Amino acid sequence: MTEQRIDFNKPYLTGKEADYISQAMAGQKLAGDGEFTKRCHEWFERHTGCVRGLLTHSCTASLEMAAMLCDVGPGDEVIMPSYTFASTANAFALRGGVPVFIDIRPDTMNLDETLLEQAITPKTKVIVPVHYAGVSCEMDTILSIARQHDVRVVEDAAQGVMAKYKGRPLGSLGDLGTFSFHETKNVISGEGGALLVNHAELATRAEIIREKGTDRSRFFRGEVDKYTWQEAGSSYLPSELIAAFLWAQLESAQVITTERLAIWDRYHQALAPLEARGALRRPIVPDGCDHNAHMYYVLLPASVNRKQIIEAFRSHEIYPVSHYIPLHSAPAGQRYGRVAGSMAVTDAYSERLLRLPFWVGLTPAQQARIVEVLDTALRG
Q1: If DSSP states are collapsed to H, E and C, what string results for 310-374?
Q2: Cα–Cα distance, 188 to 322 (Å, whole number)
């Protein structure tokens, strides 16, 4: 008999999504910025403390808006880790900006803040810390350096919903923050994202950019008697159906986070003996970082062939995955960006990282089976 399949991810549904979508349909308001979008915006502002939270159709869209709000143009440099998704760089490259890749910390896989000073030049416009696995970057240092050099900070908190740094929600610390609600994230809407605006002077302009460059939002609030084209923008609104789905998830965000933390803790405890014998390294969460259990990964020894480990898992119908190919080694990264300093940690660790199956509903028995297969495969 074939063993039960364990997929890498399974989208979690609260049970209210279809009902809220039906309510939106019954209300005959299907375009963006209806009642469910308003609820989502209020949730962002209430739970993060941002000045303005704006729902978008993806985290990529939110990053593109951030690039426009930071006035990134041809030749402007944007410092970011190479170990991130292409959207982090694309948003700025589309404006003519130059992604400047720096290495990551070996403990958290986050941007190494000690390398920032040497990467900054007179062309530096923005720093983009990426909170990998929902574990915060060292934001106090990053924000201090940004202030010293008068550059903006845009948090790529795609994986960071419900995570905190020293008690402050991720996405609320920089000038701007971005969330993802892709189906692989903790809180989902299939596709979707949000832009968190943390400075009042950027709020109105963010609304304008999001609404095709018009002041339509001000019109609907009764602040102007008609709306017109104000500046370059695009259509970054999701439909009300997406917002309705997301609202069901946001209502249960704490429940989802609590369940994911329990799954993360079970992995962490079960894998401790493997780490103790040097078979792998477990994730490290620094003091002051309240993570959201977005993922559980292990770092394999350099001597271990990751592909063989993945094949061993698949022979048992278990489907872990590797993660990013570093952007500095990708064709587009070499075309549009440049490297500042050594990328030794990024190059080495990206070859060793393995993400284990993780989703709400993953049972202790399934986790035990995953750990057993991993243990056997590592023993060779």
Answers
A1: HHHHHCCCECCECCCCCHHHCHHHHHHCEECCCCHHHHHHHCCEEECCCCCCCCHHHHHHHHHHH
A2: 22
Q: What is the CA radius of gyration of the chain?
A: 21
Instruction: Select from 219, 258, 260, 214 the least CA-distant residue to 234.
Output: 214
- The Cα–Cα gap between 378 and 376 comes to 6
Where do the domains of the chain lie?
Answer: 17-251, 253-379
Segments in 74-199 forming alpha helices (H): 86-93, 116-119, 139-149
* Buried b or exposed e, range 236-267, using 16+ CB within 10 angstroms: bbbbbbbbbbbbbbbbbbeebbebbeebbebb
**How far is residue 262's CA from residue 202's CA, in Å, rounded to a whole number?**
38
At 308 the three-state DSSP class reads helix
* DSSP-derived 3-state class of residue 254: helix
Q: What percent of the chain has pLDDT over 90?
A: 94
Of 76, 116, 78, give the one whose Cα is nearest residue 99: 78
The CATH class of the 17-251 domain is alpha beta
Looking at domain 253-379, its CATH superfamily turns out to be Aspartate Aminotransferase, domain 1 (3.90.1150.10)
- DSSP output for 28-71: T--SSSSHHHHHHHHHHHHHH--SEEEEES-HHHHHHHHHHHTT
Q: Are 252 and 14 in contact (CB under 8 A)?
A: yes
Mean per-residue pLDDT of the chain: 96
Q: What is the token pair recorded at 270?
A: 């079960």
Rounded CA gap, 339 and 192, in Å? 30
Instruction: Determine if residue 339 is left, alpha or beta; phi over 0 gives left, psi from -120 to 50 gives alpha, anything else beta.
Output: beta
Provide the β-strand partners of residue 6: 318
Maximal CA-CA distance, the chain? 72
Tens digit of pLDDT for each residue in 12-27? 999 999 999 999 999 9
What is d(CA 246, CA 91) in angstroms, rounded to the nearest whole number?
Answer: 24
pLDDT tens profile 163-179: 999 999 999 999 999 99
Neighbour tally for 217: CB within 10 Å:
20
Instruction: Give the dihedral of Cα atoms 129, 260, 41, 156; nearest 10 deg.
Output: 10
